[in-house]
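Quick review question:
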């Protein structure tokens, strides 16, 4: 896992298939869903959804985020 990021896989009643919620420093960042197929996953970004104490600065290396997204996509596709 990449430092400061966390991923929670869960079944959200709004979606037919398993989803993944990505947080950065405890602040929710986005949710990935696979209802349109494993090759057409969608990402929804959130802001100010769950404020935890002091708002963390949402700035991190693109390379880390892309790596994390690819890892999450791979794991999510196993739940389809």
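Suggested answer, residue by residue:
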């Amino acid at each position: 896992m990449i430092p400061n990021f966390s991923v929670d896989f869960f079944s959200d009643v709004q979606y037919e298939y398993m989803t993944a919620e990505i947080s950065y420093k405890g602040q929710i960042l986005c949710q990935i869903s696979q209802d349109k197929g494993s090759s057409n996953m969608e990402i929804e970004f959130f802001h100010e959804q769950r404020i935890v104490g002091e708002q963390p600065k949402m700035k991190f290396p693109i390379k880390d985020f892309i790596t994390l997204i690819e890892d999450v996509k791979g794991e999510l596709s196993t739940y389809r």
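Why it works: The mean pLDDT is 90. Strands lie at 5-10, 19-24, 27-33, 42-45.
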